[in-house]
Amino acid sequence: MRKIFFTSDVHFSHRNIVKFCPTFRPKTSNPTELDEFMIARWNETVGIDDVVYNLGDLSFSKDFKQVENILYRLNGTHHLIYGNHDGQIEQHIDRLQKNMKHDGLPMITSAQNYLKLKLPEINNILILFHYPIQEWDGCHKGWYHLHGHTHERVAKVQGRILNVGWDLHGKFLTAQDVDDLLRDLPQVSYFGDKLGDFPLADLALNQVVVKEKLRLNNK
């Protein structure tokens, strides 16, 4: 039976990743050892019939052939949400979608910056984006927002939002994992959040108040 997994910030070929996120990675700066570790974790979890939604920052390598060699070895249908370090992959995405890997599937099946995903397995809609969003589509309806980018950190955002990154969980998350972590959290609505008479009709005074609110937000 097909399984669905979520992950992010795998950071293949990043020799310094262990300095920043040591908990769930081998204690080495050798990129080959780091790559072999993550390939093994991927393939022992993901079967060739399974699906992975990868929320970005796939590889740090500047050698595109090395990127291809890694992707060739990964099991399953691979959907990528572009992260800030995926420029090389985005540049060659047509090639990656056309070329097959060891299991006969495309190296990357789909790639986009943002994805709205209906997931029947947990009867909800998911908003996938590399970065955490404070107010995402459907947050007031209880839709889930999955992101990466923050590695081992939990975003300080209210509502049903989850960092699915490897460095926070040390595993690939199933759809059930996501549902277990998020379903009891509140639905957050920002509608009707206006306070008092703000914004002000006096444009000059309004800018003063806006500047002060921004300052307070950053204290």
Trace the largest sheet across and list its strands. 4-3-2-1-9
> Structural class, from helix and strand content?
alpha/beta
Number of domains: 1
Could you state the order of secondary-structure elements as H and E?
EHHEHEHHEEEEEHEHH
The fold-level CATH name is Purple Acid Phosphatase, chain A, domain 2
Number of H/I helices = 8
Oligomer: single chain
As a percent range, the share of helical residues equals 25-40%
Strand tally is 9
Largest sheet: 5 strands, mixed
Shape, principal axes of CA atoms: globular
What separation lies between the terminal Cα atoms?
50 Å
- Low-pLDDT stretches are none
CATH class division: Alpha Beta
Strand content: 15-25%
What do the pLDDT scores average to? 95
Radius of gyration: 20 Å
CATH superfamily: Metallo-dependent phosphatases
Can you name the CATH architecture?
4-Layer Sandwich
Protein name: Calcineurin-like phosphoesterase domain-containing protein
Organism: Simonsiella muelleri ATCC 29453
Provide structural commentary:
This protein is of the alpha/beta class. It has a single domain, classed as Purple Acid Phosphatase, chain A, domain 2. Helix content is 31%, strand content 17%. The chain contains eight helices and nine strands. It has helices spanning 17-20, 31-45, 64-73, 87-91, 93-98, 166-169, 175-182, 203-217, and strands at 4-7, 51-54, 77-81, 110-112, 114-119, 124-129, 144-147, 161-163, 173-174. The strands form two sheets. It has a five-stranded mixed sheet. Helix 3 links the parallel strand 2 (51-54) and strand 3 (77-81). The longest helix is centred in the N-terminal third of the chain and has 15 residues, at 31-45. It is globular and about 65 Å long. The mean pLDDT is 95.
